[in-house]
Design a protein that fits this description.
This protein is of the alpha/beta class and 339 residues long. It has a single domain (15-23, 60-114, 130-338), classed as Ribokinase (UDP-N-acetylmuramoyl-L-alanine:D-glutamate ligase, 3-Layer(aba) Sandwich), CATH 3.40.1190.20. 36% of the residues lie in helices and 19% in strands. Bound molecules: adenosine-5'-triphosphate and magnesium ion (MG).
Length: 339
């Protein structure tokens, strides 16, 4: 590997901390059309109930998805977020998949964040997001987490309660913990000042293409100005792959892993991040990091839900090899087998 060698500050003894949302999705199907029940002249006093025929409960939340992916790749990421008393089943699932949940904050008043969505036959959706315990994430102090874990190689500031995101970035700066700014969908509700604050001192920035454009528009910063603030920028481009930009180095483009089936794209962005960060922890080059991210994203597309994919280390390495060549697969295999 050449000059694109991964983060020099990061090594395999260090821990990854993922902060952000932890939520469940309750997805229902209504076998009719909402439009048939909504009366224009009655919209002032709506009282409707749709009889759903299907309910799927899925584990989600950006931080939980990313931590799950890291766990699948054999790391022991620490998840930091706020949940309610209903979290126990979810906790045991994450524990069983290699996620350290000991620093998850338990709210004694609120339930875990929940997304409830009903879809009709025409694909229209009526949804509600209950932030619930997520608001308590702002109460979380990272000091005790860092103390418990020892050396933290990277802390992800992923979508969360906006105050929590700002607090976590502040605390990471104060404690000298390298952090990744990963505002994702929260970007749309952030002001220019809030975005600037999040980028200040960040070791890296993750976004998708749309969020990247939004970030430029909101802040007025050019690409060069962003690179002057953040030395490493990773932009996912959907079916066009991903772009890795490093200050003072040529940009790296990485393609996608052809999916074997299209089941459900939800969570691709989170899976990509998990794969990328796993590569950083293994100390492989950034191109390889993005290839690992793309491979994990493909697994997510092929399964319904964001934490349902499975593979053996050999299968994963072969998938990398199939898409990016034997050398890529072999390098990934050595790290996966070591765990
Ligand atoms: N159609 C696809 N086929 C193969 N891989 C894909 C496809 N779409 C996305 N990916 C992979 O997933 C990564 C992240 O995708 P994308 O840029 O769509 O994230 P996102 O918009 O943040 O998604 P999310 O809906 O999870 O927020 C891409 O860089 C790519 O590796
Ligand atoms: Mg996303």
């Amino acid at each position: 590997m050449t000059g694109d060698a991964a983060a020099r500050w990061f090594n395999t003894r260090m821990r990854v901390v993922v902060t952000g949302s932890i939520a469940t999705d309750h997805l229902m199907t209504f076998p009719g059309r909402f439009a048939d029940s909504l009366m224009k002249e009655q919209l002032e006093s709506v009282s409707l109930s749709f009889l759903a025929t299907d309910l799927q409960v899925r584990r989600g939340g950006s931080a939980a998805n990313i931590a799950f992916g890291l766990g699948r790749l054999g790391l022991a990421p620490a998840l930091v977020g706020a949940v309610g008393e209903d979290f126990e089943d979810y906790r045991s699932w994450l524990d069983r998949h290699g996620v350290d949940t000991a620093s998850v904050h338990l709210s004694d008043v609120h339930q875990t964040a929940r997304f409830v969505c009903t879809t009709d036959v025409a694909g229209n959706q009526i949804a509600t997001f209950y932030a619930g315990a997520m608001q308590d994430a702002r109460l979380i102090e990272l000091g005790p987490v860092a103390e418990r874990l020892g050396d933290v190689g990277l802390l992800l500031v992923s979508p969360n309660d906006p105050v929590a995101m700002a607090n976590h970035a502040d605390e990471a700066r104060f404690r000298g913990i390298p952090f990744a700014a990963d505002p994702s969908q929260q970007l749309s509700s952030m002001t220019s000042d809030q975005i600037m604050h999040l980028l200040d001192g960040a070791a890296m920035l993750f976004s998708n293409e749309y969020e990247s454009a939004l970030l430029h528009e909101r802040t007025g910063l050019t690409s060069d100005e962003i690179m002057a603030r953040v030395p490493l920028r990773v932009t996912t481009l959907g079916a066009n792959g991903a772009l890795v930009e490093q200050r003072g180095e040529p940009a790296i483009e990485v393609g996608v892993v052809p999916e074997k089936a299209k089941a459900d794209p939800t969570g691709v962005g989170d899976a990509f991040r998990a794969g990328f960060v796993a590569g950083m922890a293994w100390g492989v080059g950034y191109e390889r990091c993005a290839q690992i991210g793309a491979t994990l994203a493909a697994y997510v597309i092929e399964t319904v839900g964001t934490q349902e994919y499975e593979f053996t280390p050999t299968e994963f390495a072969e998938r990398v090899a199939g898409a990016f060549g034997a050398a890529a697969g072999a390098e990934v295999a050595t790290h996966l087998v070591r765990g």
